[in-house]
Amino acid sequence: MTYRAQWWLAVIGIILAGAGPAWAKDTLTLGMVLEPPGLDPTAGAAAAIREIVYANVFEGLTRIDGEGHTVPGLAASWTISPDGKTYRFALRPHVTFHDGTPFDCGVVKFSLDRARAPDSTNAQKEIFEPIAAIDCPAPETAVITLKRPDADFLYGLGWGDAVMVAPNSAAGNQTNPIGTGPFRFVRWVKGDHVDLARFPGYWGVAPKLAAVTFKFIADPAAAAAALLAGDIDAFGNFPAPEILPQLRADSRFSVVIGATEGKTLLALNDARKPFDDIRVRRALAYAIDRRALVAATISVAARIIGSHYTPNDPGFIDLAATYPYDPARAKALLAEAGIAPRMRFKLALPPPPYARRGGEVIAAMLQAVGLEVELVPMEWATWLDQVFKRSDFDMTIIAHTEPRDLAIYARDHYYFNYANADFRALFQRYRETPDPAAGIDLLQQMQRKLAEDEPNVFLYVLPKIGVWNAHLHGLWINDPIPANDVTGAYWGN
User: Contact at 8 Å (CB) between 170 and 177?
Assistant: First the structure.
């Protein structure tokens, strides 16, 4: 063989090696619509925080898996006393945070005391309210005593709001998250992306991916273009459902429609007139054609709901027919409540496409029954401050992605300001009942109570539209909690 022939064979070999199968990769670029306001899931309500750090960077005593089951996390096992009030957790040994800080019972006590402190900014403080005491009989044993039995305690400990944080790094987790998970934080380029890298000191099974980038692309058209161009490997929640037929026909991609906990609402400020009048709230429910709304905004099938609960949850009952589409009934109730024709309201719209597109459709439906709606698009940070934090709004469209979160209707204050003593009594009885059958009955009573009072207009469950490279495996099909868990993701045939 001549030297020139050998040279060409070498060049061809290099070309073929460079054009090798995409599944030889060990990195992943995953698209997200929203950029989080911070990266500490214990100090903010935004689902986008958990979509980056849950299970990847931070871990809790328990965790919620892709099927919605409560499984061991940093606690390898636990026992519960016969009265249901004392939980004894066996902590995993030899666990360290990414900065080398050891994980032990002292960290458990610090994390949970911080979450339940009076000045805590934790968005789900009711998870920790039942705790009476936290004791550390040994570094690898944590004993949590409750004031009363709590049917959802272990499940709540699996939420992103209950992850473990170290005393020396907790204050900086908003911008430099340090957890115990299989990936460590590398950098956050504001407005563009977050980078994670495999943590070599991880206590558990090492992830197959060496690095993950979470890329923020708010515009649906830009998201679609990035996916088609190969700049993005995956979108866990793809924002451009109108091009799904094209993607399904393209062998490069897998299109997977799953379930979420995203209870999509037309949320109302019940403390602001005229939404304090149940007739007005019911009128709005009758005025909205939910199926037409789904068809116009998300282009795929979605489960219509009549209360703040999803079919994924225990004790679900179908209340979708409580307020059928009935514009005439809506007009009659508005007139009965003394609502003047063409009364004007503001509808706050956060960035997700389901909210922006849905706002236009709902405004037209409400206009058909005599109401005027001013659409007010808001950036995410503005929505969190004005609507969620200060309750300064008339109406908004939002998907509540936290699972089994009926507790928000029993709070002293939550942004939509529902206050009903009967509902609170039902919820308290549910939390304290040790009988599973009685618990299911109370869950159903709470669903019916919310459907009766209609504090918000319950619309549909947001579907999970996953689109990713056909050679990528191990991503969640469903979203039982807000997460882009990449700990089991890998490239293969």
Answer: no
